[in-house]
Amino acid sequence: MTAPAAADHRRFFTFAEAPDLLRLESGATLGPVTIAYETWGELSPGRDNAILVAHAFSGDSHAASHRQADSGEDKPGWWEFMIGPGKAIDTDRYFVLCPNILGSCMGSTGPSSPNPDDGRPYGLAFPMMTIGDMVTTQKRLVDHLGIAQLRGVIGGSVGGMQVLEWMVRYPEVVRSAVAIATTMRHSALAIAFNEIARQSIMADPNWRHGDYYGGRGPDMGLAVARMVGHVTYLSDEAMRRKFGRKLQDKENFSFGFDGDFQVESYLRHQGEKFVNRFDANSVLYITKAADYFDIVERTAQLARPGDRPGQRSRYLVVSYTSDWLYPTYQARELVRTLKRSGQDVSFCEIEADCGHDAFLIPDQRLSTLVGGFFDGLD
Q1: Could you say which of 58, 157, 176, 235 is catalytic?
Q2: 101 is a domain residue
Q3: Residue 156 is part of a domain; what is its CATH number?
Q4: 157 is catalytic
């Protein structure tokens, strides 16, 4: 994996030191636990202006750049168009917090972290965790920062799952929730694609049952896993527009397997980039956690309007017309479920041909929706 950007604004919160280990949903214990996070803006005197941003499965805490007094801004973040002064998530008004999820390899404790028992990377000794466990660690971080209530939680894809988990586990802590391009539980199709990705990693001879640290890792398997995943993030129209059947740096077929088409070259490039920045075991654990996620039978835990006198949580659910990984029918199912439990819910389906990744692509419509939603809480 490559090192973080030179201007590293990550902070680290460590807890669950022995003997007070963190108990996971599986029943296993883990500790110590470190969560990497970044913040933007300032906490208000009442500590009531915090918005937590939850990232997708291979994301990190660097959701947006930070102002530098001597050199402008550092490396743009993965949600640069959404977070910053005067943007939808306005850092002149809000204190924005983005933690790296448990199980990742971008600063938080995960399979590549040292096992305190022997100092070697956990590998498959790392206990299986869930989306709920990720949110539990985020709640510990929020408590550590002295924030009694969040103005909102927001995220897309697996980040959206974390948003929904927040509302099930800690509804009294969150005033509002924005769930984008997400689902209440994975379909068989989504689980199938994740399993193909996992099998491609585990079939690589360099995986060595997860014990590849210090040597050559399962680069080929990880690259193929990323290729598979990347296809699910796009749409037929987006791929047709971008690639069609255009050849890559040639005029005729090679009649071989070197990669004739531009789309082949693109997927190989995406796979190679991913190998240089992410850990294969983290892919296994995080995709499995996403597959386990299911709040369909747990919505009774959501706070109802009468549970908190004078306060009512609000929801914004956003889907995209061309998202075939988490299609709009799943978002509508979520909206119906929330309404049945008495929640205040707004819903918008955005027409876009970019596929699942549309929420990561600058779009004034999404910015306007989110900005207006958070502003309307006052």
Answers
A1: 157
A2: yes
A3: 3.40.50.1820
A4: yes
Number of domains in the chain: 1
In whole angstroms, what is the distance from residue 334 CA to residue 179 CA? Answer: 10
Residue 95 reports pLDDT greater than 60: yes
The answer to the question of residue 61 being in a domain is: yes
CB atoms within 10 A of CB 339: 13
CA distance 248 to 246: 7
Residue for token pair 């747990």: 298
First-to-last alpha carbon distance for the chain, in angstroms, is: 43
- Containing structural domain, residue 52: 11-186+296-375
Query: For residue 60, what are the contacts with CB-CB under 8 A and spacing of at least 6?
Result: 36, 78, 100, 104, 106, 107
pLDDT for the residue numbered 378:
80
CA atoms within 13 Å, Cβ hemisphere of 162: 27
Q: Which two tokens stand for residue 63?
A: 């959701």
Q: Which residues are within 8 A (CB) of 375 and not within 5 positions of it... i.e. 6 or more apart?
A: none
353 is a domain residue: yes
95-99, strands of its sheet edge to edge: 11-15, 33-40, 95-99, 50-54, 152-156, 176-180, 314-320, 344-350
The answer to whether the beta carbons of residues 18 and 32 sit under 8 Å apart is: yes
| Domain annotation covers residue 202 | no
- Tell me the C-alpha distance between 226 and 300, whole Å: 36
pTM, entire model = 0.94
Q: What is the pLDDT of residues 205-219, one digit of tens each?
A: 999 999 999 999 999
